[in-house]
Design goal:
Layout lengths: L3 E3 L5 E3 L3 E2 L5 H14 L3 E3 L7 H11 L7 E6 L6 H15 L4 E6 L7 H16 L3 E7 L3 H10 L6 E5 L7 H10 L2 E5 L23 H10 L3 H11 L3 E2 L6 H8 L8 H8 L27
Parallel strand pairs: 3-4, 4-5, 5-6, 6-7, 7-8, 8-9, 9-10
Antiparallel strand pairs: 1-2
Helix pairs in contact: 1-2, 1-9, 2-3, 3-4, 7-8
Bound molecules: adenosine-2'-5'-diphosphate.
The site of adenosine-2'-5'-diphosphate (A2P) has 18 residues, from helix 9.
């Protein structure tokens, strides 16, 4: 049974969701269907992943009540600005095939064009007022970006989704989130970013092979991925592991029948190397990737 977390606006989401970053569109429908069958009720996608349509298709095929599923998606930076972001909502909602998006967040802070980021967030606030979305938030916001946003906007983000796995725990970001009452959501929660092909250099080591995590996994008769997911949940974070493999999809939600001890949690905390695997949030702008979001 999944646990739930209450957001700062009273909305409840499952602690463990399902991610589709880097899931090819042709694999996404099957993966999301599998995830819904396995019991996941929170799907995290993004306009920038190019697979919202396939997520929507899987949700429809599942036959599960729309209200029982939390759909989270993200506005890409090329759609920042007030009117542009209102339109980005229409594009995403149409591709997903839904009238309302549960959680709509800004994908990046875009510090070089922060005014456009603020305008984008104001559009999210409007969508919230209009009932088109149930909650709004941000992703990859560092404490200074959060502080700047809070000075210029009204609604406290419900979530801040950031790179977070045992090798990169961002304690300063977790602290800032907590101070604002924002839920920390972990992307790449089992450290996929530490072994994804095409990212980083040869010095990267997969966290799935980490000795400490392996030892703890063995002690509980669980896998390293399950130990990392359990660590997130016990520390109060939302986590959204990605997989397109049916067995691993099922394995990743099977984390509610064991408990890590306090010293095991702190042993995992101590693995932090302070080195991010993904892009530096201070450097992302529309020219970072050649990515524009097609019309629905
Ligand atoms: P696959 O889709 O083939 O299962 P993250 O969400 O932390 O970025 O991790 C995603 C990566 O981890 C993907 O490469 C995924 O591959 C792999 N993965 C997902 N679940 C597991 C698991 N339980 N054990 C090992 N690898 C996993």
């Amino acid at each position: 049974m999944n646990q739930h977390i209450t957001l700062n606006n009273g909305m409840s989401i499952p602690a463990l969701g399902f991610g589709v970053f880097q899931s090819a569109p042709e694999e996404t429908t099957a993966a999301v269907e599998q995830a819904l069958n396995a019991g996941y009720r929170h799907i995290d996608t993004a306009a920038g992943y190019g697979n919202e349509r396939e997520v929507g298709e899987a949700i429809r095929r599942s036959g599960i009540e729309r209200n029982d599923i939390v759909i989270e998606t993200k506005v890409w930076v090329s759609d920042y600005g007030y009117d542009e972001t209102l339109h980005a909502f229409e594009k995403s909602a149409t591709k997903l095939g839904v009238a309302q998006i549960d959680l709509l967040i800004l994908h990046q802070p875009m510090p070089q064009h922060f005014e456009r980021t603020v305008q984008a967030y104001r559009a999210l606030e409007q969508l919230l007022t209009d009932g088109r979305v149930r909650a709004i938030g941000v992703s990859n916001f560092m404490p200074n970006h959060l502080a700047a946003l809070r000075e210029q906007t009204e609604v406290v983000p419900a979530v801040n989704q950031v790179e977070l796995h045992p090798y990169f725990t961002q304690p300063n970001v977790q602290r800032a989130n907590a101070e604002h009452g924002i839920l920390t959501q972990a992307w790449s929660p089992i450290g996929g970013i530490t072994f994804y092909p095409g990212w980083g250099d040869d010095t990267r080591r997969s966290m799935l092979d980490d000795e400490t995590i392996g030892r703890i996994a063995e002690a509980h008769g669980k896998t390293p991925a399950q130990v990392m997911l359990r660590w997130h949940i016990q520390e109060g974070r939302s986590a959204i592991p990605k997989s397109t493999n049916p067995e691993r999809i099922t394995q990743n939600i099977d984390v509610f029948d064991f408990e890590l001890a306090t010293d095991e949690l702190s042993d995992i905390d101590a693995l932090d190397r302070g080195v991010r695997g993904g892009p530096d949030p201070d450097e992302v702008d529309p020219s970072t990737w050649d990515l524009t979001i097609p019309e629905a």
